[in-house]
Amino acid sequence: MNRTDMPLRRALAATALGLACSAGMGRAAAAPCGPLTVAMYEHGALYYRQGEQWAGIDKDIVDELARRTGCELRMTRDSRIRIWTMLKEGTLDMTMSGIPTAEREGFARFTPYLQARNMLLLRNDAARGAATLEQIAAQPELKVAVIKGFKHGAAYDAWLERLRKQGRVHEAPDYATLVRLFQYGRVQAILQLSSNIDALQRDTALAGRFRVLDLVPRENVVGALVISRLVAEAHAAKLEQALRAMREDGTIKAIMERHVSHERAQVMLAR
């Protein structure tokens, strides 16, 4: 080999190696986002059946996240208790409107987009003297239903624990069962997010049959996009960034106004 050719050969080899590395990095950067499974649960304006289709704030947000990021997001339905179990076990990628706790943050990451308050809905045929949590607790004939696995904030959760010890709390597996228990008088009270009140007041089976008590006005509940910590960091960050952009540019508020009143949407948007 001619000595004068050696530097040239080394330069060509280095260039080829660099091009190969660049191509590899390009393929890695173009790695597909998903498919990721997003488990949804029926819950008032957030996710509900509309004829033969499913609709709601959470569904529209997932659709927009998929459009903006190019991620393939596959929506499924399940119970709330199973959703949290699967997230903890690492067999589910995402869910919506989740409430962060110290335990949950160990296996999932949370990006808030809505806020609401839990309201106590009390049947009109229940005791008229029941207007506070203490007054309700003092009347053993009054029973309450909640959806199993839900967190309602410190004040309500402590109150519910007292009633559980007295056998006065029904744990419904889903939203539809919760509403039926209330509708047919199996329980006298249910806890509902303020975002669902409008729809329940329009429900012909319930309209005019209950009153709404705002008993813990300072305790707001934050709903968040929930992503398993097993999802690739790059994909999770892309989805979170898109959600934050949707919150800032008014998209989330516009989505909320498709399903709740303008006034309700104003207070629901997470600050």
From TrEMBL:
Residue span, Solute-binding protein family 3/N-terminal domain: 35-263
Keyword Signal annotated: yes
Pfam families reported for this sequence: SBP_bac_3
Family matches, as PROSITE patterns: PROKAR_LIPOPROTEIN
Extent of the signal sequence: 1-30
Entry-linked SUPFAM superfamilies: Periplasmic binding protein-like II
Keywords, comma-separated and alphabetical: Signal
Name of the featured protein: Transporter substrate-binding domain-containing protein
Organism: Pseudoduganella guangdongensis
Source taxonomy: Bacteria, Pseudomonadati, Pseudomonadota, Betaproteobacteria, Burkholderiales
